[in-house]
Amino acid sequence: MPADRGQKTDAAVVRAVAELADARDRFAVSVGALEREVARRFDWRAWVGRKPGVALALAFGLGIVLGHRR
């Protein structure tokens, strides 16, 4: 095998490893953003703060349903 071919193979491996590392970093950033968005969307305190009337109506309705269950 010529030395030139070995260098090309090594360069391809180095490039592939760098691309994988870059993809892993982008994936980690995407997962972090997704986690923050899910946490924001399912934060009940923030939801109640944005829609207090709806939250009060739901709490009242749930209280009635649970109060009649015995």
Textual characterization of the structure:
With 70 residues, the protein is mainly alpha-helical. It contains 3 helices and no strands. Helix 2 crosses helix 3. The mean pLDDT is 90.
Estimate the helix proportion, in percent: over 70%
Q: Which stretches are poorly predicted, pLDDT < 50 over at least 5 residues?
A: none
> What is the domain tally?
1
Largest sheet: none
Q: In terms of structural class, how would the helical and strand content be classed?
A: mainly alpha
SSE order, one letter for each helix or strand: HHH
Radius of gyration: 27 Å
Strand content: under 5%
Task: Present the secondary structure layout.
Layout: H1 3-41, H2 44-50, H3 52-67
Helix pairs in contact: 2-3
